[in-house]
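pasting for ref. prot 1 ->
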Amino acid sequence: MKSFVNKLKEQPRYSKAFEWAKLVSITGSVQVIVQAISFVSGILVIRMLSTEQYALYTLANTMLGTMVVLADGGISTGVMAQGAKVWLDRNKLGTVIVTGFDLRKKFAIGSIVIATPVLLYLLRQNGASWIMSIGVILALLPAFLFSLTGNLLEIVAKIKQDIAPLQKVKVFTNIGRLALLALLIFAFPFAYIAILASAIPQLWANMKMRKNGAQYADLHQKPDPHVRKEILGMVKRILPGAIYFSVSGQVSIWLISVFGSTSSIAQAGALGRLSMILTVFTVVFNTLITPRFARLPNDSNLLRNRYVQIIGGLFILGLGIVGLFSLFPSQILWILGNKYADLTSEVVLIIIGSCLSLIAGCSYSLYSNRGWAMNPLIGIPIGMMAIVCGALLLRTELSTLTGVLKFDIFVNCVAVLVNVSYGLLKIVRSRKAGNA
């Protein structure tokens, strides 16, 4: 049997399949471990924090995602696009990464200035004292800064497809988070402790990724004006959409925090933890699929075939996951504990919205990392129209968790249609440009 497999590997038509199977199995299995550890950490937080504290934790993590999107503003996409052009040159790749860091520092300051007052208002609106609110914000800042640094450092490993060290760092980082959380959360069941326990191990991860990335990119280079101009060109096209998506992407939490109750925020956050299963596929996708799609030659037929295959695979994956949650909602909710056991219909709704969001996000990742960016004058009005239409259709239900989850599904349906269509349109136009 072993000799038969070795013979197959030697044949050109099968060798590529074996290579992909090996990459996916390694990356996928590690991501299962990483997400399993992260999932246990999340369940520990859900079970140990009171409903009120978990609501504050959910608000803080929602704002963290918004802050990261605002501080990135398309920088990481620009770095990936520019880095993919010079990935064989250590000095040039280092220049791209360093320039990205220089830009991101400035964007991070702006993100903090904008997001902090909003978070403070929402925390106070949902019953947090001044001391608790300040504690949550102070804990959130290192989590924000460490996350930004890690996102850029990962690009080197992804471009070079040096996956094993990156996955090793992720495993040990999540083990560190779980261990630190277990040490602290039982004695101090507060939202800011849970946030801080998740942030500290990321500092260690950044140090390891910087050391590994130094093999392939000289991180002692100085920022380059030309590279900065190229990245900023991408940022100008992406930033307006990033600002929009930083708000609309978490619209369900924002709506509940304004119109709903503290318990509804906690329920939405707890159900969101169950959709973490999709993070496995997102990380595998962005680690293996996106960089390789970005490196494909400008052959429109090849691009179209790969794009259709990838999107089709994502739809099949989404249907399978939704089917699983529909068949076993009570068993899945058991994981969250008795406080959330009656959310059987809500858990199906949130996984539908999450699967649609996965497809929309992956299609966006595919085309944006080839340097294609939708004109914000087109994308944002369409997105705003979807939000307005969804709000009008469900206006009597937006104060309930079920209504907000239906609204989220409607908005994500529009996002899937827009992103998938735009990717195909750019591929078709690239063919016409090539024939001209």
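and prot 2 ->
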Amino acid sequence: MLRAIVAFVLLVLLPAAAYAQTALTLEEAINVAQEQSLEADVASFAFTSSQWAYRATEADFRPQLSLNGRAPGLDRAIDEIQQDDGSLRYVPSSRTSSSMNLQVSQALPFSGGEVFLQSSLSRVDIFGDNRFNQWQSTPLILGVSQPIFQFNELKWERRAQPLRLQIAERTFNESMAEIAVSTTQAFFEVYMTQMEVDAAAFNVAINDTIYALSRGRYEVGIIAENDLLQSELELINAQTALSDTQLEYERALDNLKLALDLPENQEVEIIPPSSIFEMDIDPAAAVQMARNNRAAPIEDNLTILEAEADLAQARAENGFAANLTASYGLNQQSTLLGGAYSDPLNQQRANITFEIPILQGGAGRAERQSAEAALERTEREIQMERREFDQEVYYEVVGLEQSQRQVEIAARADTIAARRFEVANDRYTIGRIDVTDLFDAQREKDQARSQYIQTLRDYWTSYYRVRQLTLHDFRTGEPLRVGQ
């Protein structure tokens, strides 16, 4: 219910008001992207398509009712008729015929066969000198068609379809989690360039003041011309950097709007996270979460199942095979419609067809060996992929823990560098240090701030990456089920 309310607000009220509230936190930006972005729509459509495909396949295993027939058709021609004495005569003929058949059938997945129940009616009319008409009815026929020692595609398909649906569900959740990762990257790209613009604007103001101060000192002979030229060069570089960062900021902001599917002219202000989540995640537990929640293990099971089906088919198609068809029912014929249903006669049909490969030139054995080798190769590849996947999850969790520590270190370094620049600026103002030391402090301040923001970005990207890999929210202790 809460999710429906959020979707209504994001998709209806916010667009209608042209996003009156332009400030977006990281979590809000992710929610918007998962609700209305083009990537979310693609993931949703893919999941819906998989659901309908599953339902369509499931319907194949339910009883099927069909009605088919042939409308009255005219057949007028001169036909070749063989006489009792063996001679041939060409006789003009004219007739019409029509038929209708109603059938209920039920597939038998456990055996690969089918049972059916039929009822049919047909009529023939002959015109000319020997004019007559005739009805033929089959009120009821119960029959079965059963392959024997053959590949049962229905059985394998019924085992595979639930796996495909599980894969679709988990892939959808993974897509939503991937949107969270990409949105985080786009969000922090805006934040980083925004901070770079602020830093560049600050540097322009500071360097303008420094240049004015340096020019005054040069005029009274306190500093050399080289220091004055360095101050002017730093001012020009700061102005150039401001122009470049403003362009990068606009590009990053447009990329974020594209990721959130916001209008191009929409004003957006981002509110960066003020803190991080302190979490102690057991890497081994995270690996187990990934195995339980991700699509990859189910995809592996499906791949093995398909390889086993290929092997079963290769064995079945190169050995004894037969088909049994049998039916029992009633039928009758008459010149009157009512008579065609009076005192019906029994109708029985049964036959068995078979095929036994005798000489194949080794083709059958080769196909079986190929299928067996393919199954073994698939199992080995999956073992390797699972180990690689477990390692990826393990080291992503370890990297997240390291990012937590690096954020604290980078925050402390940013504070120290900012304070050092303030001290250096004050000391330069009173002439206690030269301009080179001041600009060194300024560059270290900018580098420390950039490193801090980059570290924040790495942490939040890693945080949502761990959620994507495990499909588990370690803050709430619940599996991720987004948008379904």
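The longest helix spans residues 153-219.
The chain has two domains: 19-57+158-304+376-479, 65-108+113-151+321-356.
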